[in-house]
Amino acid sequence: MEIIQERLGDKCCLHLRGDCNIYHAGALKAALFDTLRTPAPFDIDLSGITEIDTAGIQVLMAAKNHARAHGVELRLLGHSSPVLELIEIYDLAAWLGDPLIVAAAPAHHG
Question: Which residues form the STAS domain (predicted)?
Fold first, then answer.
């Protein structure tokens, strides 16, 4: 999993790429909670996630809980198909509270 941090003024965006699973949950949790130490709002771009399992979704939920408890605005954006599937399986759309915006599919040339 690749975690790319981008700052846009007072806002931070974490772009997640690759597999968001049990093998990467520790690194993801560390990156998210490190970012959550500051009260600045931030987004998590999920468009690059190619695989996600229960451990991955649990880390995202823990980050949401922490942000809510500390009054930090945290938005999940650009949900990839694997992320949307897991959100649907666990019926988490309302709990997460973010608009489910599907990431654009790559253009096919040919």
Answer: 14-92
